[in-house]
Amino acid sequence: MFVGEQPGDKEDLAGRPFVGPAGKLFDRAVAQLGWSREKLYVTNAVKHFRYEWRCKRRMHKTPGQREAEACHHWLESELQLVRPRAIVALGATAARSLLGRPVAVTKLRGQWQEDAAGRRVLVTLHPSALLRGDPAQREAAWNAWISDLSAAAPLFAARRKKDEEKPSVRAEPAFAG
Fold first, then answer.
1. How would you classify the pairing of strands 2-4 and 42-44?
2. Residue 135 lies in a domain
3. Cα–Cα distance, 27 to 11 (Å, whole number)
4. CA-to-CA separations, 32 to 84, 102, 146, in angstroms, rounded
5. Per the domain annotation, does 68 fall within a domain?
6. Which of 82, 97, 108, 80 has its CA nearest to residue 4?
7. Per-residue pLDDT reduced to its tens digit, 25-37
8. pLDDT single digits (tens) 135-169
9. DSSP 3-state assignment of 90?
């Protein structure tokens, strides 16, 4: 399960998470790591787009703790329904919502933490941080982010092996004639 901050403008309009510019980076990372987005549950800690108008555009505004707390029961409901083996917190808002405390993402990035319910949470940057970063550092930032995410790779390998071990079900004809 991947948890981001909040929907961006494109996500808000589409009604789905990670479909805008940050979502394109997320998809690129998922593909590079050999994962299938269809097998991932992707959501946000805050369920609405907090923005301010600049000219005729809705510009992202970082959600406050009040917004995260107001939406936390929805995130907990998703966690109870999905029951993920592990969670990747994309950014400080997601990490704080999941871990229940302020999180220094740059200090803990790429490291597993444990939430109050004992669930494993991998902390890393939100892909939008890569978009806002220094263009001269983009490749290094991308490689560091991929390295963070790759800490979850053993879970995907274990899942793939488990899926391969399942007996295949062959349909038998209703009658032979």
1. parallel
2. yes
3. 14
4. 22, 30, 8
5. yes
6. 97
7. 999 999 999 999 9
8. 999 999 999 999 999 999 998 776 655 555 555 44
9. strand
